[in-house]
Amino acid sequence: MSSLLEAFLPLFEEHGVHCILIGGWAATAHGSLRSTVDIDFVYSRSDDNMDRLVSALQSSHPYLRGAPPGLPFQFDQATLRSGLNFTLTTQLGDIDLLGEVPGGGNYEQLLPYSEQFQLAGYPCQCVTLDKLIELKRAAGRPKDFEAIAELETLREERERQKKG
Amino acid sequence: MSGEQERAQEISSIDLIIELYKKDVDRTLLRQNLKLTPSQRVEKFSEFLRQQAAMRGTLQKSAKES
Question: How far apart are the C-alpha atoms of A105 and A98, rounded to whole Å?
């Protein structure tokens, strides 16, 4: 069984999808010890990239997470263009595809606040720790408060290590 | 109270809550994790998830058999 990151990154790499890892898996890459059940990406909404995203995910049969079965949902270019943020379930696991996030904006606005990591053997653009904290704070969800506390502690510890 | 003052108050109360949660964060484990590369951290977490899934599978199997 592969993790969500191991499942999706090869597809994105193969199809040349431009996206930025945020959320719990980004926190893990930065050193968080908290668990997460889905994976979150901010994706570029350029026409070409949305085409690539559809191609990358189509074989995993994305469907609206939490929606009743049997709806005429199709994960295609038209659906992606007419929406913005999608919470999906796929045969590979749950994935959130976000066109914009509070505190971070869209892909192009978030890109300067990201760094490239090699994760699960693939290059992955990952939001910086500072920006991740900003995103979590901007979301303002009580369930994130513990996560923010851990991320801010992580930042303090990282600074302490740098100083030496 | 103006909207801005209310917002400032809201932010400071959230900060207070976050500071309270920080007291429960295990810094020792974080320091250990910071010694790893991002790739190693992800691999470690992926391995944990695999073990968790395997354990869940074993428990479900034994529950069916009993």
Answer: 10
Q: Chain B: residue nearest A160 by CA?
A: B31
Q: Is B42 close to A119, i.e. CB distance below 8 A?
A: yes
- Closest C-alpha to A12, from A137, A130, A97: A97
The parent domain of residue B30 ranges over 1-35
- Type of residue at A55: S
pLDDT per residue as tens digits for the range A63-105:
999 999 999 999 999 999 999 999 999 999 999 999 999 999 9
Tokens matching residue A65:
């997470």
The three-class DSSP label of residue A45 is coil
Residues B31 and B16 in one domain: yes
- Are residues B25 and B5 both part of a single domain? yes
CA-nearest residue to B39 within chain A is A119
pTM: 0.90
Q: Which CATH architecture has domain A4-163?
A: 2-Layer Sandwich (3.30)
Q: Helix axis angle, A129-139 relative to A145-163, nearest 10°?
A: 160
Neighbouring C-alpha atoms within 13 Å toward the C-beta of A157: 22
Quote ipTM for the complex. 0.90
